[in-house]
Amino acid sequence: MDKHPWLPNLSSIEDMLKEIGVNDIEDLFKDIPKEVRLNRLLNVGKGKPLSEYEIAKEIEEKSSKNVKLKVPPFIGAGICPHYVPYAVKFIISRSEFYTSYTPYQPEISQGLLQALFEYQSLIAELLEMEVVNASMYDWGSALAEAVLMANRINSRKTILVPENINPYHKEVLKTWIQGKGLKLEEVKYDRETGTINIEDFERKINDNTTAVYIQQPNFFGNFETEIEHIVDTAKHKKALTIMGVNPLSLGLIKPPGEYGIDIAVGDGQELGLPLNFGGPLMGILAVRWDMTLVRQMPGRIVGITKDMSSNIGFTLILQTREQFIKREKATSNITTNEALMAIANAVYLSLLGKEGIRELAEEIYYRSHYAAKKLEQIRGVKKLFNSDFFEEFVIRFPVNYDKIHEKLKKIKIQGGLKLSDFTALFCVTEVHDKDAIDLLAATIEEAINDVETS
Amino acid sequence: MDKHPWLPNLSSIEDMLKEIGVNDIEDLFKDIPKEVRLNRLLNVGKGKPLSEYEIAKEIEEKSSKNVKLKVPPFIGAGICPHYVPYAVKFIISRSEFYTSYTPYQPEISQGLLQALFEYQSLIAELLEMEVVNASMYDWGSALAEAVLMANRINSRKTILVPENINPYHKEVLKTWIQGKGLKLEEVKYDRETGTINIEDFERKINDNTTAVYIQQPNFFGNFETEIEHIVDTAKHKKALTIMGVNPLSLGLIKPPGEYGIDIAVGDGQELGLPLNFGGPLMGILAVRWDMTLVRQMPGRIVGITKDMSSNIGFTLILQTREQFIKREKATSNITTNEALMAIANAVYLSLLGKEGIRELAEEIYYRSHYAAKKLEQIRGVKKLFNSDFFEEFVIRFPVNYDKIHEKLKKIKIQGGLKLSDFTALFCVTEVHDKDAIDLLAATIEEAINDVETS
Amino acid sequence: WDEPLIFELSNNKGKQGILINKDERIRNEIKNMSIPKKLLREKAPELPNLSELEVVRHFIRLSQMSFGVDTGIMPLGSCTMKYNPKIEEKAPEITEEHHPLEDEDYVQGILEMIYELQNWFSEITGMDECSLQVPAGSAGEFAGVLMIKKYHETHNRQYKDEMLVADTAHGTNPASAAMAGYKVIYVKSNNEGLVDIDILREIVNDKTAGFMLTNPNTLGLFEEKILDIAKIIHSTNGVLYYDGANLNGILGITRPGDMGFDIVHLNLHKTFAVPHGGGGPGAGAICAKSELVNYLPYPIVEKVHGKYKLSKIPKNSIGKIATFYGNVGNLARSYVYLLGLGPQGIELVGKMSTLATNYLIAKLRDVKELELIAPNRPRKHEVVFSAKKLAETTGVTANDIAKALIDNGFYAPTIYFPPIIEEALMIEPTETEPKEELDKFANTLRKIVEMAKLKSENILNSPTNTAVKRLDQVYANHPSTITPTYRVLRLRREGKINYLK
Amino acid sequence: WDEPLIFELSNNKGKQGILINKDERIRNEIKNMSIPKKLLREKAPELPNLSELEVVRHFIRLSQMSFGVDTGIMPLGSCTMKYNPKIEEKAPEITEEHHPLEDEDYVQGILEMIYELQNWFSEITGMDECSLQVPAGSAGEFAGVLMIKKYHETHNRQYKDEMLVADTAHGTNPASAAMAGYKVIYVKSNNEGLVDIDILREIVNDKTAGFMLTNPNTLGLFEEKILDIAKIIHSTNGVLYYDGANLNGILGITRPGDMGFDIVHLNLHKTFAVPHGGGGPGAGAICAKSELVNYLPYPIVEKVHGKYKLSKIPKNSIGKIATFYGNVGNLARSYVYLLGLGPQGIELVGKMSTLATNYLIAKLRDVKELELIAPNRPRKHEVVFSAKKLAETTGVTANDIAKALIDNGFYAPTIYFPPIIEEALMIEPTETEPKEELDKFANTLRKIVEMAKLKSENILNSPTNTAVKRLDQVYANHPSTITPTYRVLRLRREGKINYLK
User: Fold this and answer.
1) Which keywords annotate this record (chains A, B) (predicted)?
2) Interface touch C435/D70, C-beta < 8 Å
3) How far is A295 from chain B (nearest CA, A)?
4) In A, which residues are within 8 Å of C17 by CB distance?
5) Checking phi first, is residue C425 left (phi over 0); if not, alpha (psi -120 to 50) or beta?
6) How far does CA A298 lie from the centroid of its chain?
7) Degrees to nearest 5, angle at CA B208 with B195 and B246
8) B49 interfacial to chain D (CB closer than 8 Å)
9) What is the spatial distance between Cα B380 and Cα B444, in angstroms, rounded to a whole number?
10) C159 in reach of chain B (CB within 8 A)
């Protein structure tokens, strides 16, 4: 191959070898034992370098093997379809941002640092918590890191988790705590309301409890109502409190800071990120104004400082927590995070502003309630829980949900997430209008009728 | 309306009015006679301000009312489908470029000026002509302006134009010259070769000829072979020579500069622009190193200069030709041009480079010849002209082309441009691969068989 | 930065920024080229050879040395540099992949959009019909003047060979009139900055083909006698032409059609938020009333039995101004802009831009060195200050003020225009600049004036914070040094070319 | 620029950067909210109120105060800051709109892509199977260490509680090992900068769970005794773990699997050109050989009767590392990168990046103040110079050199790493920087060293061309001044919070 647009020096090989003083590139690999040399081409890609035109065609072909849904999916489970403003896409496609690196050299990276600082600051206001890091991978891993933090702080071994939290987060949590030998204990939820069973919680919290985790709204979309009590009880038991939040819901409901929560986690996906088949997501992690907590935080944190001329500047702070300095004593091994997604969140929250976030949360509230109401109008269909909810909700059907899914599939609709044979979790946001919801309901009604008349 | 994302001052109206010292915005319009006040809302848009989400849906709805073709259209007539590299799109979506204005303030616009200077310079090398302006609207209007230039130089009234030039350009030319009372005289073409009939040309050129225009390759895609002779004759008659060129073809064939052409015109669409239903296009206009010509050029020109510290800098030059200074004595009324498209051309040519442009031109040559050959293998189908061609070519069919078009339409293919009942002009470029061409040919063959067996 | 020319980056070796896709199957079928030898290019063009990274990095660096509305306020008078909402960049999805000569059934979405826009612009201007054929404002003007010409010719009024133009008019007006073969007659303004009706009455006669006017004019003043003006022009069968460049300040408040104008052009890149692209591409519309609709450039989209067709050719059409149908990709951007504002938002454009102009004036009213003609009249889209007094007392000119503004991170206003105002600073804030930015701009202007009085050399030496300092215009334009392309630089170095003569 | 904080731009009034789409029909059906009152937010969050223009302009200005590979060379050692081809930005079209829990029939294109990538990365690493679940390199490492742990536990080797790590290793290696509960044992390098085999033999015992190694190591040196190392580790049933961060220099030349490694993680944002995004998101792969494939994180895509399914769960899987399937949007970018290079291009990545490193060394070989360990060994992806001598004679440290490079428009190398080299400058040029850029970089480095000797204060005071000068790290981290959010600044001003304690 004599030229390639991404390999600029193919025509300079001779010159460069001459400067080095060797005859062949092979000479630079003479320290690699012959036995481990590959000596053949790797069987990757499509057998030859593709031109950009051919690559574009491959991308389009792959896309065409997916199904373009008729309306956005009615499935959530923690990450939901939302409209992503063009300004967000535009800013994160600025290549000064997207081709840059962790800002180790602050003087030349003030813009990036300030953008990340603003992300931290916007989330801090949303959560009413003072310290936010510059991102984790996603909600699940942020939760896991929060639990590891708690364990480092109080050395206790059990993490108390309600059954009604996101099961995907729970899977991640289980994976991450196995190395340290922590145990996960589950608290039942009330079958009527879908919210935490307080008696069971009180029964299970004890002196081994490193932290209590609650999710608001919970996995079923229902609001937990006894948070104050849970926090009080945990404090009393000297366990830490960790709360997972849907950041958009905070346009309407009380933020973790108001409850005196120690560590808040969540996902910024709902603040301006596309679904992207589940990644990149955007793990949020925040703590109270407390040195014990701050010192144990994982990840990058940007702070304000001054330069030699007393000008305001931004820099990474508290770096002595991090792996590249503390190695095995670091608070986490995290290096690469989700910085660009944090910037997307910052742009999104700046566009929404104080009023916009409330308006959007309201719109989602109304639409999801409309959808639930509409579904409940179908004979035999009922909400599974009777407490109020936001964005997501569980519906019980009189027929196996597989039948409904099949019917929806015929018109390229993605319904809810099947939870059991007769229940499914639906997600409705500002991208689902009345027509889309009505179509969903009508199709489900048909599916039920089909089964019942067959 | 109390807020809108594009109207930042709705909440500051009171403050601003107070500063002005009036009570109502209406007071600022008191000089408008009551009789001409509108006093109602305009009936535009969709009756209310749409949210960005709703706008995006409208765009998608409009797109869905178009037909997504199975393969890129086989239609050209001067603008052709090509692959646009992502780097080109990326650069022209830099908002420092796309939201900027004509660089009247050079000190703060050096990047934009340099980019335009580089466009001029790259085109100069491609054409081998020394002076290029920073863009015209399109080929048609560039041609019209070239003819008006010629008229200003020699005051003659007839423009000699072969019948085989692009008829759309000819329509534009006719429109533009009517104000000055110029006449267009047409030269016949040879029915065998499709190229200019030299005898007819010699017959028609005379002392009233302000300029001779030729197009290379001509509208039929065929190469004109007698350009030297035409130029000599024109020079002898003291008429100017204007040549229209397909810039991509210059990767293979002789540029206008080598023929001693006075003014070259063309369209940069084939250098990195999408089709965009015919606009924005990108008019190229260049002249020889000759003050008489340069002084009569329309449009902006960027040149190199020095600043007060003798650093190299860029600025608009020869502005005394322009409308904002010379008013009715200006060389043209043009103000807004196609600057951003010029930058797209510059990026595209820089990516291609010296070798790339030849490779691309070759690929187009081979593909268009393959297509012609493949079509000629169908019984009764024949190329209309016997001279060599580039990218476009005329085919004669044994059945009315409408029948063929109908058949192609059934599988969402756009065939050639119908020239007469039995002929059509096809365009084949690097976006049409063998499969696409074979499908075209097979479908045409079927169409012909259908007619013949019906 | 100090970024070299792209030609200087190239090492003239086998680098290439993009791979060409080659269909080997076709190469196997067509083995040779049969181009006549004498047609072949002998020497490859002197294009640079660079990798993708080098090209991208080069142009990104150049972009960083540029200034757009996204970087800061660009208060260029008569240019209407408003914010271009980002969603507009989705609009070309409608048009991008379609060839203008495709079967109309393939492009119904595009045609519907054009059709709706034609109607909307007719409604906005108060005209009967619009053609969106014109790729920019000056092309629209040219079309308009040709329409006037053909209209008079059709009515055997060839004797009408004079076109009236206000002395405050944009340079394009006389230039367009001249391109159409008209003799240009300037109409002087009165001391209020408005058309002098008495002078107009005197000038208008049988030879008057028409009057090209902007309203509000380039001083930002509304011609309140517009109905009288229309009557005078129409009295000799003249045509009243509206230059739409200044429409922004009265959008939704009043319409050219209601004022008595017969033909209107619009600059969609000004009033309707198409990005200016560093000079272009823009987009335009040319609209007409009554009989004059018959002269509009073709084609116009019409709806026939529920299908959109590009078939409408006005019976006396002047022809085509552009090769195809105008800058359709940019029409789509305007379409999106109009969707986003809706009737309520559009009305506010006129109000809020006018508010912004008068607010800026109020913020500067105590700066005595910036004088106004007719200071008690409200402005519309823009305001023109004269820095004549400052220039006389300190030597600091409008140009110097412009350079000092640049040094402070603002773009400069339009200067030395209109020509009837000495040391003119023509400022158009538009409705999209927040009050806070207007405050900053006004404060900076005030400080510059103060500095000019205190220490004029500080202003005279600006800009100093820019990539280059003030540029040598003589060197730039002198026949011995003029360098319009790298080719000239190269050939001059090689001794192959000489003075431009 | 000197751009204010976004909170300071806001006038706290009714501005909003985006309109919320409201479905009035739904509002008519659902009239009230029924959220229990005690759950309601009492005070709206203190977010700024801004128009779209203000938000866009603010972040564009911030972007202009940033530096990416598109702006200039970023020779950060061990970070592999290569050019990210622009076509990669088309790749997320495949994934963008799809929810991870959609019916598999809806996402066959995505699954096919993941499946192909799994196979390609297995081929590239010489492993049997890969899971692309891990969103970044360190998550991959963590997964790898958990796999080792579970593997030993499954074989009842709980006594294996020590993880070996080279003293040149990336900090993530010991950190990951510690997170999995391992005791970390460092393996010293010999004076050639390579693993000291004798020491290794001594250290390895029954408690050795595994050895985490990069090859080439962080000095850019290839561990030529890698087969011996593997044998030693395997001799006690230890697992040899490959940290893929340094793969770039040997890509296509040799494979970890062939060297005897059992588990490999890849950083797709390094070797496979996913943009670094200012710190992330990246993407990763974790691959294993033989029995260890049973421990990979789930799910893995498999092909069943021609259909792709997310159904493969390795029988002893450690579980899930990320909430869904890793950073699939970025996997698509790597996919595009691999398509563009193909087998031939991939082979050249190793060759050309190694060539670039050794070229840079050659260009600097006469700068005596930049010393090399084992100077006669060829480097692979990167090189580490020691500026110790310079620091001793002039006081100019590696950090000062870094700041001086910044002042000259380059990004700085990684500094003070690996810890075994004093005053380390760790430089990784990658294969995408053109020779001309390497020449400029080398010349600048040379000039800085010369200036340090001549006039050290010039270097010690750098940077001066940047937005800010050197920053006060004490102020940044002190409990009384630490300011991690604007909220802290605000509450501190309001007297509502105190020292961080």
Assistant:
1) Oxidoreductase
2) no
3) 41
4) 5
5) beta
6) 16
7) 35
8) yes
9) 12
10) no
Q: Which of D51, D69, D433 sits opposite C434 (nearest CB)?
A: D51
Residues in chain A: 454
Dump the DSSP string for A59-122: HHHHHHHB---SS--S--TT-------HHHHHHHT-HHHHT----SSGGG-HHHHHHHHHHHHH
CB contact under 8 Å between B5 and D14, yes or no, is: no
Q: How many other CB atoms are there within 10 angstroms of residue C231's CB atom?
A: 12
- Say if residue B5 is preceded by a cis peptide, omega within 30 of 0: no
With vertex at residue C187, the alpha carbon angle to CA C182 and CA C190, rounded to the nearest 5 degrees, is 170
3-state DSSP call for residue D385?
Answer: strand
Among A6, A53, A347, A363, the strongest candidate for a mutation testing the B interface, having the largest count of B CBs within 10 A, is A53
As given in the structure block, the two tokens for residue A353 are 């502003």
User: How would you class D383 by CB atoms within 10 Å of its CB: exposed for 0-12, middle for 13-18, buried for 19 or more?
Assistant: buried
Which SS3 state, helix, strand or coil, does residue A14 take? helix
Find residue B4's DSSP bridge partners.
B7
Residue A230 tokens, joined: 């849970």
Q: Please, what are the domains in chain A?
A: 11-59 (no CATH), 86-348 (3.40.640.10), 354-453 (3.90.1150.10)
- Among the partner residues A5, A11, A53, nearest to C52 by beta-carbon distance: A5
User: CA-to-CA distance for B18 and A200, rounded, in angstroms?
Assistant: 63
Interface of A with B (CB under 8 A): 3, 5, 52-53, 56, 83, 85-86, 90, 93, 95, 351, 355, 430-431
Dihedrals phi, psi of C300, to nearest 5 degrees: -115, 145
Q: Let me know: does C394 contact C453? Beta carbons within 8 Å.
A: yes
Cβ neighbors of D367 (< 8 A, separation 6 or more) are D445, D446, D449
Q: Which chain D residues touch C51 with a CB distance below 8 Å? A: 83, 432, 434
Question: Which pTM does this prediction carry?
Answer: 0.97
Query: Is residue B347 packed enough to be buried (19+ CB in 10 Å), middle (13-18) or exposed (0-12)?
Result: buried
Residue D292 · residue D265 · CB < 8 Å: no
Nearest by Cα to B374 from B359, B389, B395, B404: B395
Q: How close B92 gets to chain D, by Cα (Å)? A: 13
Contact yes or no for A148/A159 (Cβ under 8 A): no
The whole-angstrom distance between A98's CA and the closest CA on chain C is 13
Beta bridge pairs of residue B427: B392
Spatial separation of the C-alpha atoms in residues D273 and A98, rounded to whole Å: 12
Burial class (CB in 10 A: 0-12, 13-18, 19+), C177: buried
A104 and chain D in contact, CB less than 8 A: yes
Tokens at D369, concatenated:
């103040």
Q: Are B142 and B283 in contact (CB under 8 A)?
A: yes
pLDDT tens, per residue, chain D with 501 residues: 579 999 999 877 789 999 999 999 999 999 999 999 999 999 999 999 999 999 999 999 999 999 999 999 999 999 999 999 999 999 999 999 999 999 999 999 999 999 999 999 999 999 999 999 999 999 999 999 999 999 999 999 999 999 999 999 999 999 999 999 999 999 999 999 999 999 999 999 999 999 999 999 999 999 999 999 999 999 999 999 999 999 999 999 999 999 999 999 999 999 999 999 999 999 999 999 999 999 999 999 999 999 999 999 999 999 999 999 999 999 999 999 999 999 999 999 999 999 999 999 999 999 999 999 999 999 999 999 999 999 999 999 999 999 999 999 999 999 999 999 999 999 999 999 999 999 999 999 999 999 999 999 999 999 998 889 999 999 999 999 999 999 999 999 999 999 998
Give C-chain residues touching D356 at CB under 8 angstroms: none
